[in-house]
Design brief:
5-stranded parallel sheet, globular, Rossmann fold, alpha/beta
Length: 765
């Protein structure tokens, strides 16, 4: 429920963004849309207030989640519409059409009269410039010609009224070059494309006139827009009213203590055997009892790794080892968990330390210092999530540093490298997934428990091996899935578990997804968004920092907190935090810094956002549930086998009846595709008008072929285009210069002709 509520609040906030500064409302007033915009703004504010109230109430249940989903959907429609209006506002501002009226309620003749002055002015400028150019000034400024052409190209007469609340970003048939009441004049006024910057094969872009087909003009239909606004308000009002009524009978939410759901650990392990960690365990025991830590005053040794990787189990085996028990005079185990409360922690530690003769009554720190002054001790701080601040950690260490005995050790387990770096006095130990052979032994021990594995079960092993590949060496995942498989030792059940990834739906405290979700919910909402949307990239993808940050910018996830902060600054801060919390791991690839996401965390991200986004590939396209609310899609072509590719193509064709393409905000295609793939995708995404993020790499054909409505993508923020290395003849689309909301244009994988529209400078964002 928290996820649904937060998502609805986020979308409503984004919908309100275009009208925050008053510019859109002022422009709307010149189009006779002022009252419509104000009505929609007021309704969105009321929805926002309702959601804020819901955040303070104890709400639950499938019905409430569905109502929140309806509010989110209508808010998305409002966001699309207001964003579209802001596009036309920018267009008018750029081309001097700010006070031009569009379709009048009384019909096309009124429209023509209202626009006549602007049309005549633009035509006269174009004719005048053309005359001067041919008669007296062969070197006239092509920018002036283009400006006049653009002013003329604003004059479009769209089709008649059509009531709709859908996600179409433009008036009906707005992609057509001319439509409406005066088609002959409309065709006469349409202008050729702008001059281009071209590649002279020296590697540097140069200017030239365009030879490509002109870009279709986009139409603005005032009456149609007005009716869409009314329709959205009519959709929002009854749902908001009903949610408000329900909230009146809900109790206020008490602040939940997330640590209550965490199991309290002790020094005694519940696992009968330690798999795959013998070498690490013996190394640590040797260093503590006979090796390099013996001569030091106090060693703080952190053990780091994601949830479920086996940190606590390893340290429990070290703690209970007889050699360790004999070496240390005092052994203390404390489960810290999510809340680091220094006073409570010191009180708990004190109870584990035996009193000494003649100790003086005093503060807790003083008592600990007296009792440990002549003792060698081992202190385990298990499951540390935070320090209130650096000073609290220093205060915690003070009484332990007073011991006169050398060789004392603090073992600290945490999910977060930043915690380890703050506390360590020795290099921390980072645990990763178990090696395949050891993991297999552990996995089978959880499936068959005390029963020996026999040849009667060998028919299950092929499916079992495929399941193990998905678990990436995580001991807790092996335990969760082993319990699922143990319920029924037949092939049908095991295959169902494999195909559905049933372990992702297990909600027990000790299940793998519950352990990983705890880390996820620990993040603030905007960082959850950054993490989870990144799973639209393929598994094991090596992200560059710039790529991730630009992607988040395109999704409008990053919001400035202060005047001096750029979106790039905010993105880098979020990325560093996600590394700190263990959601990304840094590694060097060919000397360059890259970021990788653990496969189980990748699965977690897709699971948490399954109502909004989905990643399709050969192995899941036939089985994964595609929900009606999906707005972000990636397709990964990951198999060279001809038969597999044909099956994949067949499944993609079926998506046309399932996927609501009109409401997609993100479309990302990865992998090698041939022209038949491109043709299927072209047909599938014919109506994808609402895209904000578009990533097409390794294109075998032009982007206009793959997306017929490419020039109508007025919402686009992030555009990444790439060709095959032999695609030199492919041209960049002219329409790029009209994507006024565009913030990122990534041509790092573009090997085609580098012709750039001259008026690219109009993309101020």
């Amino acid at each position: 429920m928290l996820v649904a509520l937060s998502a609805a609040q986020w979308v409503v906030g984004k919908a309100l963004a275009p009208i925050a500064d008053g510019l859109l409302e002022a422009w709307g007033a010149t189009k006779n849309l002022g009252l419509n915009i104000e009505a929609l703004r007021m309704e969105l504010l009321l929805v926002k207030a309702t959601l804020e109230l819901a955040g303070c109430k104890q709400i639950q249940g499938q019905a409430m989640e569905e109502l929140l989903g309806k509010l989110r959907h209508s808010a998305h429609c409002a966001e699309d519409l207001l964003d579209e209006l802001d596009y036309f506002r920018i267009h008018d501002e750029l081309h001097g059409m700010y006070d031009a009226a569009d379709q009048h309620a009384k019909g096309c003749v009124h429209d023509f009269c209202l626009n006549a002055r602007h049309t005549a002015k633009a035509v006269s400028q174009l004719v005048g410039l053309s005359t001067r150019s041919s008669a007296s000034s062969p070197a006239c400024d092509p920018g002036e010609v283009q400006a006049a052409r653009q002013r003329v190209s604003c004059c479009v007469w769209p089709h008649g009224r059509q009531r709709s609340c859908g996600n179409s970003s433009l008036a009906p048939n707005a992609n057509q070059e001319v439509s409406g009441c005066i088609p002959r004049l409309g065709k006469l006024l349409l202008c050729s494309s702008s001059p281009h910057v071209c590649d002279d094969h020296s590697g540097q872009p140069t200017l030239r006139g365009a030879s490509q087909k002109e870009t279709p003009v986009l139409g603005f239909h005032r009456v149609y827009v007005s009716e869409r606004m009314k329709c959205i308000v009519e959709q929002l009002q009854p749902v908001r009213t009903e949610v408000t009524k329900i909230l009146q009978s809900c109790d206020r939410m008490t602040v939940p203590d997330i640590s209550v759901s965490r199991p309290i650990t002790t020094g005694q392990s519940t696992e009968q055997k330690l798999y795959g960690r013998d070498h690490i365990m013996h190394t640590i025991i040797h260093d503590m009892t006979k090796g390099k830590y013996c001569s030091k005053d106090l060693t703080v040794l952190p053990v780091v790794g994601p949830g479920g990787i086996g940190k606590t189990t390893l340290v429990q085996y070290i703690y209970r080892n007889q050699q360790v028990q004999d070496h240390f005079q005092v052994l203390i185990w404390v489960c810290v968990s999510l809340s680091f409360n220094l006073s409570k922690l010191l009180d708990e530690i004190k109870t584990y330390i035996p009193r000494v003769e003649g100790e003086k009554v005093g503060r807790v720190e003083e008592l600990i210092e007296q009792r440990l002054k002549s003792k060698r001790f081992l202190l385990v701080l298990d499951d540390v999530w935070e320090f209130s601040n650096g000073d609290d950690w220093k205060r915690l260490l003070l009484p332990f540093k007073a011991s006169q005995e050398k060789g004392s050790v603090i073992l600290l387990t945490t999910r977060f490298p930043a915690i380890a770096n703050m506390g360590k006095t020795a290099d921390y130990i980072e645990l990763e997934g178990l090696k395949s052979e050891e993991f297999r032994k552990l996995f089978l021990s959880f499936v068959f428990v005390d029963e020996p594995f026999t040849s009667d079960h060998s028919f299950l092993l092929e499916t079992g091996d495929k399941i193990m590949e998905n678990l990436k060496g995580s001991p807790l995942a092996a335990k969760t899935v082993g319990a699922l498989l143990r319920k029924n030792l037949n092939l049908r059940h095991w295959r169902r578990v494999l195909e559905s990834k049933e372990w992702e739906r297990q909600t027990g405290v000790n299940d793998i997804m519950s352990a990983l979700k705890l880390s996820y919910y620990y993040l603030p909402f905007h960082q959850r968004q950054c993490f989870s949307y990144s799973a639209l990239f393929p598994e094991d993808y090596k992200y560059s920092g710039t790529e991730l940050i630009n992607f988040w910018i395109g999704l409008d996830i990053l919001q400035p907190c202060g005047q001096n902060q750029t979106l790039e600054d905010i993105g880098l801060s979020n990325l560093n935090d996600l590394v700190t919390y263990g959601f990304f791991k840094e590694e060097k690839t060919n000397g360059r810094l890259r970021y990788v996401m653990h496969d189980l965390l990748h699965d977690l991200a897709l699971h948490m956002g399954s109502h909004e986004y989905i990643s399709l590939h050969r192995s899941n396209v036939g089985s994964v549930q595609i929900k009606p609310s999906i707005r972000h899609l990636s397709i990964i072509i990951d198999d060279d086998d001809t038969l597999s590719q044909e099956n994949f193509k067949g499944q993609l064709r079926k998506l046309k009846t399932i996927l609501k393409v009109k409401q997609l905000h993100s479309l990302m295609l990865f992998g090698e595709m041939d022209e038949s793939f491109a043709s299927i995708l072209s047909d599938l995404f014919r109506e994808a008008n609402g895209l904000r993020v578009l990533c097409l790499v390794n294109m075998p054909t032009s982007v206009e072929f793959m997306l017929h409505n490419f020039s109508a993508l007025v919402h686009l923020r992030y555009l990444c285009l790439g060709t095959k290395k032999y695609g030199r003849e492919m041209q960049l689309p002219l329409a790029i210069s009209r994507f006024y909301h565009l913030r990122v244009l990534d041509l790092g994988s573009w090997y085609g002709c580098c012709d750039l529209p001259r008026d690219l400078s109009k993309l101020a964002k």
